[in-house]
Design a protein that fits this description.
Low-confidence stretches: 1-7
Helix content: 55-70%
Pfam families: BPD_transp_1, MalF_P2
Domain ABC transmembrane type-1: 293-516
Family: Belongs to the binding-protein-dependent transport system permease family. MalFG subfamily.
Radius of gyration: 36 Å
Function: Part of the ABC transporter complex MalEFGK involved in maltose/maltodextrin import. Probably responsible for the translocation of the substrate across the membrane.
Order of helices and strands: HHHHEEEEEHHEEEEEEEEHHHHHHHHHHH
Number of strands: 13
Keywords: Cell inner membrane, Cell membrane, Membrane, Sugar transport, Transmembrane, Transmembrane helix, Transport
Strand content: 5-15%
Largest sheet: 7 strands, mixed, barrel
Strand order of the largest sheet: 2-3-4-5-6-7-8
């Protein structure tokens, strides 16, 4: 009997051992694939000149190999995905943003210096005095170009050229031409046919036997395209058209002409604290920034006050014993919280429309007024507070209802014995007892509204604009929407300045989060 049980258990034990072994090898193979993939990303980003992304994936791949390669770090494997995600999606963007804030990174300083130099060296210009008049000749279903030098012009004695049939032009629209002694037989096509084929001719680049490129310079002429710049040994560029010299300036990130003019595009360079100095020292930036900074705090603070007031009053009314149908009222009052915010914002945007909105229609019929909600700065701010109070009060209502439920009923009974009414109970008992546990949540709500980008973007877009600002700034902008407009909506797209403002926003929000943790008595 013993031998039989042992023989029956052996295959089961062996199969479990093999399954565990295959699982370990599968995990090792998966880790090897992940590590190799990250190393491939490191090489790819390094070759493209993106050293920060290459460093990110190098650290990620090395930590992945160490954590999953050592048995002593087995307990860290369960935390690694969360830490890796935080590093990639939180820490790295933060560090990258802070790094950009110390540079002149913008739409004018976007490319690397090598790419800017290559772009200048690829520029060409039409040589003067070497143009060819051209005519179109038809050969069956195909067209052929005949070129003849103007006056005494020509290319190394070549005065007449004829092209291959235009139908043979490749995808790059390069077409070879060769010297001829006389014009083709037949009558050339008229100007109407030339105009009809103008787009086709403008896309052509004619290549002569000595590799000179000719491009269309007018309705009747082609001219040689010559390289405009030549690179010198010291890194400067010589303008072959007028002999001027372009000098690379590593402080500004531009090529500078002899007269001091900066030529775009440029390349990013470190500028130290210049972006931060612009925020506080440049009057054209400081004025709008401080105005938006103050409005951001006022908006977030008033939103918290208004939503708390509405939510607290409604929660107190819903706890009234004499109120019938509490479940129905509770459902109706919380319903705005279930509707997606962007839908509610767009509905309010239509209702506040100055010309045909329902709100102005009612006000005009009752009081004869038609407020300019979107053009008057104070009315636009008032509209934002009204809409945001509507969107935020259900959250405060839920919080207050839950906290009120935890208040002992004995306190209200004692208040009733002393002659206290509903208003006394609300202000003397309910509010003081729920305010302390609400404080961390109020700070969190303040931080959320401090960065309430969706409301501004969908309702006002930051408008009306602040006059005289050198950056795109509006009277209803919050710091987050102001930063977005500087980075993506301005013609200059000043990413460095936007990153500096974003860094300041991070410091403010981080400070509020730290305060929230302290008030919540959480050890940090």
């Amino acid at each position: 009997m013993y031998t039989t049980n042992a023989s029956r258990g052996l295959p089961r034990h062996r199969s479990r051992y093999l399954a565990e072994r295959y699982t370990r090898w599968a995990m090792r193979a998966l880790m090897a694939v992940l590590v190799l993939s990250t190393l491939w990303l490191v090489v790819a980003f390094h070759l493209r000149g993106q050293w920060m992304f290459a460093l990110l994936f190098l650290v990620l791949g090395a930590s992945l190999a160490i954590v999953f390669g050592k048995r002593t770090l087995m307990s860290h494997r369960y935390v690694f995905p969360a830490l890796a995600g935080m590093g990639v999606f939180v820490i790295f963007p933060l560090v990258y943003t802070v790094g950009i804030s110390f540079s002149n990174y913008s739409s004018s300083n976007l490319l690397s210096e090598d790419r800017v130099r290559a772009q200048f060296l690829s520029r060409t210009y039409q040589a003067e005095g070497a143009a060819f008049d051209f005519q179109l000749y038809r050969e069956g279903d195909q067209l052929r170009l005949y070129l003849e030098a103007k006056g005494n012009a020509g290319l190394e004695g070549v005065r007449r050229l004829i092209s291959e049939p235009l139908a043979k032009a490749g995808e790059g629209q390069w077409l070879a031409v060769r010297p001829v002694e006389t014009a083709p037989a037949g009558e050339p096509l008229g100007l109407r046919e030339v105009i009809a084929n103008r787009d086709r001719l403008q896309a052509l680049t004619l290549v002569t036997p000595n590799d000179t490129e000719l491009s269309m310079a007018g309705l009747r002429s082609f001219a040689p395209m010559l390289p405009r710049y030549r690179e010198n040994a010291d890194g400067s560029l010589t303008d072959l058209r007028d002999g001027g010299v372009l000098t690379p300036d590593q402080e500004s990130g531009f090529f500078i002409t002899e007269s001091g003019e900066r030529l775009t595009p440029g390349w990013p360079v470190a500028v130290g604290l210049d972006n931060y100095m612009r925020i506080f020292a440049d009057p054209d930036v400081r004025g709008p920034f401080l105005q938006i900074f103050v409005w951001t705090f006022v908006f977030a603070g008033l939103t918290v006050v208004f939503t708390l007031a509405v939510g607290f009053v409604l929660a107190s009314l819903l706890q009234w014993d004499q109120l019938k149908g509490k479940a129905v009222y509770r459902t109706l009052l919380i319903l705005p919280y279930a509707v997606p915010a962007f839908i509610s914002i767009l509905i309010f945007k239509g209702m506040f429309n100055q010309h045909y909105g329902e709100i102005n229609l009612i006000l005009e019929n009752l009081f004869g007024i038609s407020p300019e909600w979107f053009t008057d700065p104070w009315l636009a701010r008032t509209m934002l507070l009204i809409v945001n109070t509507w969107l935020g009060y259900p959250y405060m209502l839920l919080l207050c209802m839950g906290l009120i439920q935890s208040i002992p009923r004995d306190l209200y009974e004692a208040s009733a014995v002393d002659g206290g009414g509903p208003l006394t109970n609300m202000l003397k008992i309910t509010l003081p007892l729920i305010l302390k546990p609400l404080t961390p949540l109020l700070i969190a709500a303040f931080a959320f509204n401090f960065n309430n980008f969706v409301l501004i973007a969908l309702l006002t877009g930051g408008n009306p604009d602040i006059l005289g600002a050198s950056t795109p700034a509006g009277t209803t902008d919050l710091l987050v929407s102001y930063t977005y407009r500087i980075a993506f909506q301005d013609a200059g797209q000043d990413f460095g300045l936007a990153a500096a403002i974003a860094t300041l926003i991070f410091l403010v929000v981080a400070g509020m989060s730290l305060l929230n943790l302290r008030l919540s008595k959480v050890k940090v």
